[in-house]
Every structure is written in C-alpha cells, then in structure tokens.
Amino acid sequence: MSASAPRRSGRWRVASRRRRRGGGSTGDPLIRRELRGPGRAGLHVPILPLGDPDGPPIVLLPGLTDGLHPVSRPAARRLFDTLPVPMERCRGLVLSYRHPLAAPVATDVLADDLAEVLDGLLARPAVLVGHSMGTLVAQHLAARRPDLIAGLVLSAPLLTVDAQLRAVVERWAALARERRWDDLAEDALTCSYTGEELDRRRALAAALPPEAPDEELRTRHLALCQACLTHEAPASLAVIDAPALVLAGAVDPVAPPHHAERLAAVLPQARLHVLPGLAHGFPEQAAPHFTALVTSFLGEVTAACAAWTGADGR
Q1: What is 21-305's CATH number?
Q2: What is the pTM of this model?
C-alpha cells in the first residue's frame, strides 16, 4: 500500500526522468475523466500522463499513498519525478482513485472505476504496475477485464487480509484519526526501509518536515484503509492469464513474501522474485535491481504481445 506517511521523498522514486506529454513542464498536466453510471455522479479520476504519448501504455496503480498524496495535488506530482519503469518509449499513466473519495468503498469498485477510465483512454492493452494495495485493485481489474491487460507487475503484493496486514493498516488508520502525523511517518518509514537506508530516510524527514495533511486527505486515507481491510479477492485468480512479474521484500512487515509466493503459485504465467533483506520500500532501496527486473519483464512482454507493441514495434 506504500508507506503512506506524509513526506518529501516518495514511493517509486527509483529510475528514469519523466517527460511530460508534449515535452512541457508548466501548467496543469492532469487528465480528469468523469465517471458515469449509478452512484458515480460527480466523481472523477485524475490521471498524470508521463513519457511518450504515442508509446505502448503502462498504467501505475497507487497504494495507500494515494490517500495522502493523490496526483490531484501539485506537491504529490513531484513524487513521480522518477519512476521504476523505463518511460522514454512508453505512455505512462499514473492513476489516482476516484475523487472525491470517502468510505465506504471497496477494491473491486475502485477497479471498475479504473476499467471505465482505461476503456475510454486506451486503444490497446496496458501493462499494470501496482504496489501493495494497488495490487489488490490490479487483481480485480485483471480478472474482470482481461482484454485491458497485457501484463502485470505486482510489487509487494497482497492476497488476503491476514492478521499481520490488519494490524498494520488499523494502526495507520488510528494514527490518522488521531492526527498523529509524526508517529505515522515514523511507523511508515520503519515498515518501508532497513539498515542505513532507514537511517537516511529518518534524517531526511527530520531535516524536511512535511506539512500536516488537510481534512480531505485525512478522509481519503481513512477510506483507502477501510477498502484494504474489507478486500475480498476475485473468485478465481487463475483466470488471469497475462504474464505477471511478482516482487516481494523478504522482511516486509506489511506484505510478507508468503503473499507473493501464494499469488505467483496461482497465476498461470507468473514469475517470482523475493529480494533479500528488504522491506516494503524495496523499489526505492534496491532501485537498480528492481528497475532491471521490471525493464527485462517489459521487454519480454513487448516482444511477445503484438497487440501491446503495435505494428511499428514500439
């Protein structure tokens, strides 16, 4: 679900520089897609476009970070100055969950929102890249709309709401309800990093203390915590036949590797990598290794799926 504490350095801060649609860096880059259908009046999904607008699509699904750092906020967009995937020849779309967002909402409903958005935006299947809670939404999206999916990168994935996950999310929700933002930040750092990297992140947080989230962000964070805690897995994950790269940190206290191992065992085309000595923030802490794994996987999907690469091989 990503370390969800307010901070200046963000999840996915690991690789290539972004290039705005059209090459610009000023103005409002967001796309806003209105949702339709029963119960969706007045709702929209903000989308941050990155990379090459004509390239093959890669869709990034956020975790709990989207509660306190949605891409609708200009400050949060800076968290995507660097990414864990090679964007130079890809059409990157960083999706936020519905706005406004309030409880109750379920992970399958969030997946339906995103399916509607992708239906209207994309002419060919995309690779989904999800981290933590984003992998819960990705599972529903891939099971319900396989026509939209060319491949899956599931980073720190979750499969079921077990006692360990419930304890972490309930703790983070309680800290947010009590507006104990410093404690939430420290808890999230402890869950995300190990060794010298944890020390470095703590020093950075002390030197650059972030502003406290406003009430809208607090409400949003609590709604996503509830969505995570009430998650029900798709009836059958075996129907997800897209190639899948499943990545886990060996000492992740939020999404222990047994989630990734069970998920990789049931997905027909999954491969599993467990990164030793790393916790929930391994995409940042092990940036070169993570990026190499993702880049290799994307290259294989590109070569294998003509519908994704397009006639010109891009």
Answers
A1: 3.40.50.1820
A2: 0.87
